[in-house]
C-alpha cells in the first residue's frame, strides 16, 4: 500500500520496507502475525455494485450467490459480498496469496478475519471439512505457520471451540472475552465460567491433540472497545462513523464505573484503574495464549467508539506522548505482569491443568451471588513456587483465609491492584503476608510462595 512507504515513495518502497521491518522484528525476537481478510472484497453488494476485478471476471466463481437466482450475492461478511473460498479456483488464489506472504515476506503466521465465512460452500452452507481450511492445515509451507481463526462470521456461524482445525488452527476465544468481562465487572453467576476460562478452556480445546495455546485469550481487540473504554462507557458512541449509530456491537459487557466517559472524579478513576489491572492480571494468569491490544498499556481511548476502523485520526493513532507522560504507572504494571507471565513456569503451560495442578478454594460454585474466587497453582515438578490468586468482584471487602504455603516457604505479595504504583506490583514480592488478607472491592491479589 503506497501510503505505508516512507515519504510516499510508492508500493515498491513499501514492499522493501515491510521486509526490512520483518527482519528487524525477527532480530528482536518478535514474530509477525498478519491479519488477513479473505472473506470479502471491495466490490460491495448488488444494490451498490463496485466492479473492479472479480465481479467482472467471473461473478459466479468468485462469490457465494443465491443459487435460485444466480445473481443475488450472499453476505456473510457484513460488507455486501462473500468470497467463494472453497471453489477450487478461488481456493488456489488464496493459497498462493498466503504462500507469497510467507516465502517473500517471511511472516510467521496469519489471523483470519471472520474465518467461519471461509467454512461455507458456494451456496453458503456450512461445511464440516472446508477444503480451504484443510488445505492450509496440510500445506507444506503454511502448516508450519501460526494459524489463528476468528471463528465466527456475520451470518451467525459461531464456531468457538469447534472450528475445523486438524489440530493446527488456533482460535480467538470469544467465550473467554465475554466471561472475563462479565465476572470482573460483577455480573452474577459467572464464577464457574471465569474459572473455566482461566484454566485454559479445556471444555472447548481439550480434544484430540489440541493444546491450551490453541485458545487465543483476549479482553480487547482492534474491533470493539479499548480497555479504557471498557471501564468508561456503558454504551457505544459511534456517531462519528456516519452510520447513525447502527454499526458496531451492542453487546460489549462493559461498565463505566459510575459515569459515562472521561471524568475528573477521583474515586471513579481509581476504580477504573483497578479494573484495568484486574483484567490484565486475569489475562496473564490464564492458561492459553494471551493477546493484548496496542494502546491498552497506556489506557488509549476511542471515546466510546467501538467500530473505529475508518478513522485516520487520534482515535486510532498510537499516542506516544500519553505513553511517556500520562499513564506511566499503567505501563509499568503491564510490563511487570507480562514479564511475570514469561518467566514463571506455572503460567502458559503446554498442557491442560490436571486436578493436582490447581486447588480451587471454593465450595459454592452454584451461588449466583458469589463474586469472589481464589485458587492456588501448585509448582509440583515444574518449579517456580506456588502462586495464589484471588479476584474480588464484590462491592465490599472480603477478608479471606489464605491456604498454608508449602513447607519451608512463605507467601510474598506480588500484586494487589487496590494499591497505587509502585506497590500494586512488586517483582521480588513483599513479605509478611500471614493467615488472612483483606481483599478490596473490585480488586485482585497475587501471592508467591518462596523461602
TrEMBL record:
<protein>
    <submittedName>
        <fullName>Uncharacterized protein</fullName>
    </submittedName>
</protein>
